């Protein structure tokens, strides 16, 4: 079976979050199941610099108003179509925002072009390869199911759309509709029309053959207004076609036994080397060496991630003999709050602003616990890395965090299956209680060790998730009617 994945970021080429990890790992996990997955992604400048040799597959003299070329390349075990269009993707900032953090004003065109090119591949533009299924990710691929549905040639390739975060919807003024090269009929309730605007995710969710999201709990949560962010009604109508599949992790990239970014490697049986990594962290973050727990945060600094709760808890963490280290960037107000907490507690609270993949590995390998007080979390990956590395996850009970962590309650501790701490409600009171539990458990070394070891034994691989995607694809191929 052949599947085309459509993604706006793909690890190790470009990454702003979990979507890249998934897009980079799923093709490798599907290969042993007999599924050949190729990925189409934008040819951002940094991506073109990294990939090396490419082959030209097709020329688009006018792809929604811009010249573009479709390239093919292989990189890190991935088979990639790169959409090369300097007008669209040669920018100084990140994949979606400029250097000041503002969305590019032509994002509608940049990702419509990606969807359009993906559809051309489905419709046979590459004589050597055409997919049986097209699998798009997030709003950036939201138009794929629509372009497929309205393709003049048939039969139309089945489509899957995965929601990694329903908060990002790709909503644009209705004025852009005429430039999308969709028939007028597509601007309707059962197409892209969304409260008088154009909604890429909305249109995709309306027309994809199947919808997935990245955990079973999040699949239920997005039926509620609190989590569905305006799309809960539509999700409810499509519930028969919705499934939640938890992400796995790339266990070569994230393997404490072989990780080249850590000071000392270790495994689940022998975690003594974690102390060496802890010492390396103390040095890197200029912490005063101590005996209390080091809590870490590796995250976008946003309200979603509950970073305000971490800032609020910093004083108490230090008062109880703990330390806090943070890697991330984001909301300027939260960055300032973090900076102030570090200034109040030199040697005990420290931050590295920015994005640092190697340091994120060292933190998982050397910190005692990772704090993830997210208010909503479709799946979350950092708690999975924490499990694999024995960095005990302390998480809000929501979405994928609830599906992947076993709370250290009395029964779970007695059965030695606890892998972390979950808390609810997700507010400063709930988080404070969770931290106090963490301090108590940490003081009882054998208990803490047993949590770390159970965590490291958790199955966080892609295997079972990949087979769930494989069965979904098979179901779609056997389906005759287009919705
Ligand atoms: P989201 O996709 O919502 O940001 P996830 O937990 O699903 O959250 O994925 C975040 C990914 O980005 C993880 O791989 C995490 O290690 C990584 N990450 C987040 N912030 C940083 C950072 N500042 N430096 C390095 N890696 C980071």
Structure description:
- Helices cover about 35% and strands about 20% of the residues.
- The protein has about 475 residues and is α/β, with parallel strands linked by helices.
- The protein has two domains: about 270 residues, 3-Layer(aba) Sandwich (Rossmann fold); about 180 residues, Rossmann fold (3-Layer(aba) Sandwich).
- The strands form three sheets. The protein has a nine-stranded mixed beta sheet with strand order 3-4-5-2-1-6-7-11-12, sandwiched between helices.
- The two termini are about 20 Å apart.
- The model has no long low-confidence stretch (mean pLDDT about 95).
- The structure holds adenosine-5'-diphosphate.
- The site of adenosine-5'-diphosphate has 17 residues, from helix 1, strand 13, strand 14 and helix 13.
């Amino acid at each position: 079976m052949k599947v085309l994945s459509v993604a706006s970021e793909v690890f190790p080429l470009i990454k702003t979050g979990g979507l890249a990890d998934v897009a980079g790992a799923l093709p490798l996990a599907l290969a042993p199941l007999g599924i050949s997955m190729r990925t189409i992604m934008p040819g951002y400048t940094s991506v073109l610099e990294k990939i090396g040799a490419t082959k030209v597959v097709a020329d688009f003299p006018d792809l929604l108003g811009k010249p573009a070329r479709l390239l093919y390349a292989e990189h890190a075990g991935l088979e990639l179509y790169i959409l090369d269009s300097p007008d669209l993707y040669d920018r100084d900032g990140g994949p979606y925002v400029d250097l000041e953090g503002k969305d590019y004003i032509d994002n509608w065109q940049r990702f419509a072009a990606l969807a359009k090119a993906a559809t051309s591949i489905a419709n046979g533009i590459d004589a050597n390869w055409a997919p049986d299924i097209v699998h798009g990710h997030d709003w950036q691929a939201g138009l794929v199911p629509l372009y497929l549905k309205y393709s003049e040639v048939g039969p139309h390739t089945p489509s899957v759309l995965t929601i990694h975060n329903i908060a990002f919807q790709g909503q644009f003024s209705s004025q852009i509709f005429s430039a999308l090269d969709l028939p007028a009929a597509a601007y309707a309730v059962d197409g892209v029309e969304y409260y008088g605007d154009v909604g890429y995710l909305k249109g995709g969710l309306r027309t994809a053959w199947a919808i997935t999201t990245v955990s079973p709990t999040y699949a239920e949560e997005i039926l509620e207004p609190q989590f569905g962010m305006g799309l809960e009604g539509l999700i409810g109508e499509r519930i028969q076609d919705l499934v939640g599949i938890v992400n796995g992790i790339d266990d070569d990239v994230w393997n404490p036994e072989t990780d080249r970014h850590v000071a000392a490697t270790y495994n689940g049986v022998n975690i003594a080397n974690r102390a060496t990594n802890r010492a390396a962290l103390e040095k890197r973050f200029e912490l005063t060496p101590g005996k209390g727990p080091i809590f870490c945060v590796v995250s976008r600094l946003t309200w979603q991630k509950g970073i305000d709760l971490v800032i609020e808890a910093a004083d108490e963490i230090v008062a109880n003999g703990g330390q806090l280290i943070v890697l991330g960037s984001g909301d300027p107000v939260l960055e300032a709050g973090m900076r102030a907490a570090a200034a109040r507690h030199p040697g005990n609270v420290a931050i590295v602003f920015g994005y640092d993949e190697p340091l994120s590995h060292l933190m998982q390998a050397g910190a005692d616990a990772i704090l993830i007080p997210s208010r909503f979390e479709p799946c979350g990956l950092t708690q999975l890395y924490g499990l694999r590395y024995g960095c005990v996850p302390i998480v809000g009970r929501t979405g994928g965090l609830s599906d992947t962590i076993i709370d250290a309650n009395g029964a779970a501790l007695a059965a030695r299956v606890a892998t972390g701490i979950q808390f609810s409600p997700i507010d400063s009171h709930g988080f404070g209680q969770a931290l106090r539990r963490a301090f108590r458990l940490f003081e009882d070394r054998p208990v803490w060790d047993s949590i770390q070891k159970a965590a490291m034994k958790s199955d966080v691989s892609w295997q079972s998730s990949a087979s769930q995607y494989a069965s979904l694809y098979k179901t779609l191929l056997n389906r005759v009617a287009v919705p």
